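Lab meeting, item 3. Inverse folding demo.
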């Protein structure tokens, strides 16, 4: 049955289910635990409820809560993939990449070094990459923690691991 042809009883059953099972509160708690920002959590919850409504007639009553959690989890994964894996965090036009410490330095050498830095930073895992990008923009760990809704210790840990990884990559690149 299409969603346009649903009866008033279907809508009432759906509303009752969402309230009785505390679906929105449950999703909010689960997503918050995973570190999802409030606005993103709302978007995921709305998407999930829409998918539940679309499958209301075909989903057995005992599987509805599982469908909600499954849909929300996969929506969050899709969001992370699109956010972190398709977009480079370090923009080639970033000011810190354009500045030269030594005005007499060879522009071609500087351009090559900037390209290497961009590639190395973009090769970091998503959490390290985003924290590192904020740091390169001059943001201190405390502000990064607020922006990303992480603890300051977690931000510092991501920075430490990111620097270690970059150091390893640079050593490997120089020895090649």
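The presenter then showed the designed sequence:
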């Amino acid at each position: 049955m299409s969603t346009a042809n649903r009866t008033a009883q279907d809508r009432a059953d759906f509303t009752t289910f969402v309230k009785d099972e505390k679906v929105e509160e449950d999703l909010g708690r689960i997503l918050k635990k995973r570190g999802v920002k409030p606005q993103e959590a709302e978007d995921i919850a709305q998407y999930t409820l829409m998918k539940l409504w679309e499958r209301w007639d075909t989903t057995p009553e005992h599987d509805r809560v599982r469908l909600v959690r499954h849909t929300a989890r996969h929506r969050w994964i899709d969001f992370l993939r699109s956010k972190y894996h398709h977009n480079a965090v370090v923009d080639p036009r970033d000011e810190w990449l354009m500045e030269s410490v030594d005005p007499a330095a060879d522009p071609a050498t500087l351009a090559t070094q900037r390209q290497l830095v961009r590639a190395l930073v973009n090769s970091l895992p998503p959490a390290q990459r985003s924290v590192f990008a904020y740091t390169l923009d001059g943001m201190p760990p405390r502000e990064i923690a607020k922006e990303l809704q992480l603890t300051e210790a977690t931000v510092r840990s991501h920075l430490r691991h990111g620097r270690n990884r970059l150091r390893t990559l640079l050593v490997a690149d120089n020895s090649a």
